[in-house]
Every structure is written in structure tokens, then in C-alpha cells.
Amino acid sequence: MSYRNFIIVAGLSFLADQLTKLWVVSHLYPFDTIKVLGDFLRFYLVYNTRGVFGISFGGGITYYILPIVGIGLIIYFARKMKHPIYSIAFGMILGGALGNLLDRIRLGKVVDFIDMGIGDIRWYTYNVADALIVIAVFLLFLAESKKR
């Protein structure tokens, strides 16, 4: 049952990521802004040609190989997990990783559009895949801390 949950969550996560990116790309030009919650939360279309948080870590083929290795590891570990929280978290990570990898393969870059901050103090622009991965990592830390 847990592996089934993993697959369902991964599929839904991937779908949510890709549908939101499709919507944003069809409604915004690069660097256009839609205010969602005033200046605090807005949609701001940018394309990330680099890695996580826009950080360069080798470039080129590295941006394809690392996610593929990560996806393989996620699938490997997810098959061994029995608790539902791990299935959900690993499913969110897999769906997010697949969403960003598909962008790289299709576009050569990742679609980012969620922009948060106050005034000139802004977080890195990110997407639903990134948000799901961060939430999942938090869930994994929480689950592991409950074991102790």
C-alpha cells in the first residue's frame, strides 16, 4: 500500500507542477508580474538555467545527471519504506524532481515563477516542484525526529 501511495503522490505532484508552469507560461511573459498577495507573494516568470536556488554547480550535463541519479535513489529508498509519511514525502520529491527534469529536457532550463518577499528582500524565485521538495524534506526531518 505504501508504494502505491508513493506512486500516486509522485504523479499528482508532477501534474501539479507541470500544470502550474503551463498556466504561468501561457499567461505571463518573462519578468512580468501578477500580484497574488500584494507585494509579498507574486507570480514572476523567470527561467533558471542553473541549479537549485540559481546556484551554478558545474553546468552542462551535470544538471541532467544529478537529477537522474537523485530520482534513482528516491525510487530505491521509497521501495524500502513502510510508513505512509515516507511514501508521501518521497512521492513529493520524485514528482518535483521529474517536473524540473522535464523542463530541463524540454526547454534546457527550469520554469520558476513563485516570488516571495518584502520589498527588496526576496527569496529565490521557485516553482511548485521546488516547494514540494522542500515540504517533503521537512516532513522527513519531522518523521525522523519523532523516532528519537
Q: What count of domains describes the coordinates?
A: 1
Number of helices: 4
- Characterize the largest beta sheet: strand count, sense, and whether it forms a barrel: 4 strands, antiparallel
- Rounded to an integer in angstroms, the radius of gyration calculated over CA atoms is 16 Å
Low-confidence stretches: none
String of helices and strands = HEEHHEEH
Beta fraction:
15-25%
Order of strands side by side in the largest beta sheet? Answer: 1-2-3-4
Helix content: 55-70%
- N-to-C span: 25 Å
| Mean pLDDT over the residues | 92
Tertiary shape: globular
Please identify the structural class as seen in this structure: alpha+beta
In total, the number of strands is 4
Describe the structure.
- Helix 3 packs antiparallel against helix 4.
- The chain has one domain.
- Strands 1-2-3-4 form a 4-stranded antiparallel sheet.
- The two termini are 25 Å apart.
- With 148 residues, it is an alpha+beta fold.
- The protein has 4 helices and 4 strands, in the order αββααββα.
Provide a brief overview of the structure.
The protein has four helices and four strands. With about 150 residues, it is an alpha+beta fold.
For this entry, give a set of tags.
60% helix; 4 helices; 148 residues; 4 strands; alpha+beta; single chain
Topology:
Blueprint: H1 2-27, E1 33-37, E2 41-48, H2 62-80, H3 84-107, E3 110-118, E4 121-122, H4 128-147
Helix pairs in contact: 1-3, 2-3, 3-4
